[in-house]
Design goal:
Length: about 280
């Protein structure tokens, strides 16, 4: 593009210098109009028409979903509901705030919104796409390199719009298949006495009214699925590191970390109860 722009710039400047220095001759008026018709009308119509035709022939291929994975993502204020669908799965696998994809394959995203307009954007992998309530949009992405990327919401959607992110992990095909099989499994039972107490408290306090932990009585669908929370890199919709201290802070002071969030802060919990719940959740690999 730089080379083409350089050539065009040189021609334009050359013509401008010629126009300033040339002596007008009597028949220049007619020659001038011919020049305008050929270079100003016919040339752009032919050149842009050819480029448009070429672009349109590329489109069906760029938009075709391939036969790989489908990931349904729903934007919510202010987090992401994620559902993996694949012919190899018995049932869709529900997760949140993190998307994993196999490298070198077309993954089709089915994008929806539960409340207001959001926009799904993974800048290193492709363009953004609006998530509109009551209307399904689609986006096909084909990552060419493994790695961890950051995705964001790219449409103002309320108080914590800037705190609505997610991580994207592009994996080798085999590693991804292994991970998806693990993600489809129910939650691990608590492994320590503290975690066991945490699981009991999790149920008593009512966390299960909003959150699902598959394999337990917790089956709420208001908030993010927590079945494999500990395997995710981030907390709170891609904004915080996933470690025990931060998780305790998130549970006890949610509103301060994400203004306007639907989840109430559980600051009234005694510290050792909070620690037990954190121990339980951080064991959900
Ligand atoms: Cu969702 Cu901005």
């Amino acid at each position: 593009m730089l080379a083409a722009a350089g050539v065009i710039w040189t021609i334009v400047i050359g013509v401008a210098i010629y126009a300033v220095r040339a002596n007008p001759k009597p028949d220049e008026g007619q020659r001038g109009s011919r020049l305008v018709i050929y270079l100003g009308v016919i040339f752009p119509v032919v050149a842009l028409g050819a480029l448009l035709t070429y672009g349109l022939t590329l489109m069906p291929d760029l938009r075709s979903p391939g036969d790989g994975l489908t990931v349904a993502v729903t934007g919510e204020q202010w987090w992401w509901r994620v559902e993996y669908r694949s012919p190899e799965l018995d049932a869709p696998v529900v997760s949140a705030n993190e998307i994993r994809m196999p490298v070198g394959q077309r993954t089709e995203f089915i994008l929806e919104s539960a409340d207001v307009i959001h926009s799904f954007w993974i800048p290193p992998l492709g363009g953004k796409m609006d998530m509109t309530p009551g209307h399904v949009t689609r986006l096909v992405l084909e990552p060419t390199e493994t790695g961890t990327y950051r995705g964001v919401c790219a449409e103002f959607c309320g108080t914590s719009h800037a705190l609505m992110a997610f991580s994207v992990i592009v994996m080798e095909e085999e590693a991804f298949a292994r991970w998806l099989a693990e993600e489809a499994a129910p939650a691990d039972p608590p492994a320590t006495p503290v975690a066991e107490r945490g699981a009991t408290l999790f149920a008593q306090v009512g966390c299960g009214a909003c959150h699902t932990v598959r394999g337990t009585a917790a089956d709420g669908v208001v908030g993010p699925d927590l079945t494999h929370l500990a395997s995710r890199a981030t907390l709170g919709g891609g904004i915080l590191p996933n470690d025990p201290e931060t998780l305790a802070e998130w549970i006890s002071d949610t509103e301060a970390l994400k203004p306007g969030v639907l989840m109430p802060s559980f600051g009234m919990l005694p510290e050792d109860d909070l620690d037990a719940i954190v121990a339980y959740l951080e064991g959900l690999e």
